[in-house]
Specification:
The chain is mostly helical. The chain has a domain of 63 residues. It contains three helices and no strands. The longest helix is centred in the middle third of the chain and has 29 residues. It is elongated.
């Protein structure tokens, strides 16, 4: 089995996120909601990492389909979280563009 460090180098996507400067607000409600959004992006990135390894391991179609559907559900929820930020007058942290692509 490959070492963890080897596995990490083969999956080359961002897994830690921060609130961009243009999305930072003095309003604590906006900050709280954007922080929640950033943490959720990290969760999505972790799911993408797991999906990558399912594909590499040759997982079955059923498992891969479930993994893909799970990612799509999380992306829909992320869009809802973005709306939550906008409803309180803030600028939402954008969804990373690569999240909509296959791993």
């Amino acid at each position: 089995m490959a070492e963890v460090s080897e596995l990490l180098t083969t999956f080359n996507e961002q897994v830690v996120f921060e609130i961009p400067k243009d999305c930072i607000s003095n309003d604590p409600l906006v900050t709280e909601r954007n922080t929640k959004l950033v943490k959720f992006y990290e969760e999505i990135a972790q799911n993408r990492y797991q999906r990558y390894h399912l594909i590499e391991a040759g997982a079955g179609k059923k498992k891969l389909t479930k993994s893909w559907e799970n990612l799509q559900t999380k992306l829909k929820r992320a869009r809802t979280y973005q709306q939550d930020v906008r409803q309180v007058g803030g600028k939402a942290v954008p969804i990373p563009a690569h999240f909509t692509d296959e791993v």
